[in-house]
Design goal:
Layout (H helix, E strand, L loop, with lengths): L1 H56 L9 H4 L5 E2 L2 E2 L1 H4 L1 H6 L1 H19 L3 H9 L3 H13 L18 H12 L19 E2 L5 E3 L5 H8 L1 H19 L5 H12 L12 E2 L11
Parallel strand pairs: 1-4, 2-3, 4-5
Helix pairs in contact: 5-9, 9-10, 10-11
């Protein structure tokens, strides 16, 4: 009888152990399955984000030009042209937009660097230093020919503080992982040598949008132009209709001093930047 009781007890113990291990195994398999599913979704999301960033950064080759390059009828560009500041003939020919361009460049520099130490230091000493800087660029361009944005870095304002400040703007500073507020972009990222002076709102980087419309509206524009891109590329809306709707939505919302005649709202199948 004792032997039978002992055997029954051992069988029950083995059953409990087996059940416990089975439950543990089932939990482990379930957790593994859930983790695997999460990693697959995360990996797909990461790959998509990387592909989108690569798309935004990649320039089309000359052989396979982008839609943006093929738009011969487009009047605007997505960046600020330096031509009005370094070319007297262009200033004379486009006198009606020069004041707006001057304001736009000041807005952009203020937006990009106003919270940086080097900017605050010179602004505290000389509140109107941006006007002085632009006047110096115009003056020096009358003495020597400058055609490319990067050539502005060779200018000598005969003013050490202005030279240092402008150099830092043009050079930029890389972002730091531990402190994302430490870095700042190069002003050269937002300048072009093309002699076109209407700004392509549909393709312009967010910093230029903020210089034209203010920061809050710049985010709204980026959201809306992405929607228009989807509609036009999916052929649920024509480029002409999207352009009209885009202009009606934001044409009158520029900051004081920026008129809608400076802006080109053309919408195409070219994918707008996400930054």
């Amino acid at each position: 009888m004792n032997v039978l009781l002992f055997v029954m007890t051992m069988l029950m113990l083995f059953s409990l152990l087996t059940y416990g291990r089975l439950e543990s195994f089932r939990n482990f398999v379930g957790m593994q399955s859930e983790f695997s599913r999460y990693m697959q979704e995360y990996e797909r999301k990461w790959v998509n984000e990387q592909a989108e960033e690569l798309y935004d950064r990649t320039k089309a080759s000359q052989r396979g030009k982008s839609d943006q390059d093929k738009e011969k009828g487009t009047e605007g560009v997505s960046k600020i042209s330096i031509q009005l500041f370094v070319n007297q003939q262009q200033r004379d020919k486009n006198a009606q937009v020069f004041d707006q361009y001057r304001l736009l460049l000041k807005n952009l520099m203020r937006y990009l660097y106003a919270d940086k130490t080097f900017y605050k230091e010179v602004e505290n000493e000389r509140p109107d230093f941006l006007d002085t800087l632009i006047d110096k660029i115009i003056l020096l361009s009358g003495e020597k020919k400058y055609t490319k944005p990067k050539e502005l870095a060779t200018m000598d304002f005969q003013d050490q503080k202005l030279n240092e400040t402008f150099y830092k703007m043009l050079k930029g500073s890389p972002m730091q992982e531990e402190d994302l507020t430490a870095g700042y972009p190069s002003l050269l990222n937002f300048l072009t040598d093309k002699p076109k002076f209407r700004i392509r709102v549909y393709l312009a980087p967010r910093a230029i949008l903020a210089a034209i419309f203010g920061e809050a509206t710049s985010y709204e524009i980026m959201h809306e132009r992405k929607r228009y891109y989807s509609d036009v590329s999916g052929e649920s809306m024509s480029s002409e209709d999207a352009t009209t709707a885009f202009q009606q939505q934001f044409g009158a919302r520029g900051l004081p001093g920026i008129e809608d005649t400076l802006l080109d709202f053309k919408v195409t199948k070219t994918r707008p930047s996400s930054s």
